[in-house]
Amino acid sequence: MISKVLPIYVLWLREMKRLVRSRSRFFSSLFMPLMFLVFLSSGFSGVKFQGIENYTEFLTPGIAAMAVIFSSTFAGLSVLWDREFGFLKEISVAPVSNTSIVLGRIAGSATTATLQAMAIILLSIPLGFSTDFKGIVFSTFFIVLMAITFTGMGIFFAAIIKDFHGFGMVMNFVIFPLFFLSGAIFPITKLPKFVQPLAYLNPMFYGVEGLRMVLTGRALICLTVSSIATLLFSIVTILLSAKVFDRI
């Protein structure tokens, strides 16, 4: 048991040390979500969507999820760097399973993404977002599962794509449709009718709706469905990323 858990802890600790040593990267990654939050919440403050009384309260869970998806998916880029500089070759000769290596990478990146999302939620309070301590605590469940899902997705694409430029282009091609189909910045009911079914295949949609429910008490789908769907997506991406890790 210890032999399986120790590699996960070591890889997680490595990511935490990288985070501490490059704090500027952590804070700079908060800039874009905060820009979205400040400008969209102020710019659309007078717009009335059906069933939405306060747009800032509607928007904040979506922007927190945005911080998670951007931070998590680009964790695959660090995998490419590790392959380029030989770190993956070193750990590949160790008596450690691919699953432990993937779980360690996911744990480190998911922790970073979770901290960024929680920072967004706390910084949104002075902008007019209101929630309670219980909601913030319960929100970590969805934030962590989303971080696991999209970190696994980043590792999956890092196993398929061999160069840095191609990885960035493909991930942008994947991330933005997921983001706009998640209901993060406007209700999916405002999408064209033929597009709306795609939102229900989007893992980010369930994460956003779950966050919205625990933070504001209002969402399109019930908390149980959001919880189960988000959990299933996280398990699937872990299994897929572990399966393709041999290619890296």
Condensed summary:
The chain is an all-alpha fold. It contains twelve helices and no strands. It has one domain.
Walkthrough of the structure:
The chain has helices spanning 2-21, 23-28, 31-43, 55-73, 75-84, 87-92, 98-124, 133-160, 164-180, 196-199, 203-216, 223-244. It starts with a helix and ends with a helix. It is mainly α. Helix 1 (2-21) crosses helix 7. It has one domain. 75% of the residues lie in helices and 0% in strands. The chain has twelve helices and no strands.
The number of helices is: 12
Q: Provide the structure class.
A: mainly alpha
Which whole number gives the mean pLDDT?
A: 81
Number of domains: 1
Shape: globular
Strand content: under 5%
Order of H and E elements: HHHHHHHHHHHH
Q: Termini distance?
A: 26 Å
Helical amount among residues, as a percent range?
over 70%
Radius of gyration: 18 Å
Q: Tell me which oligomeric state these chains represent.
A: single chain
The profile of the biggest β sheet is: none
Low-pLDDT runs: none
- Number of E-type strands: 0
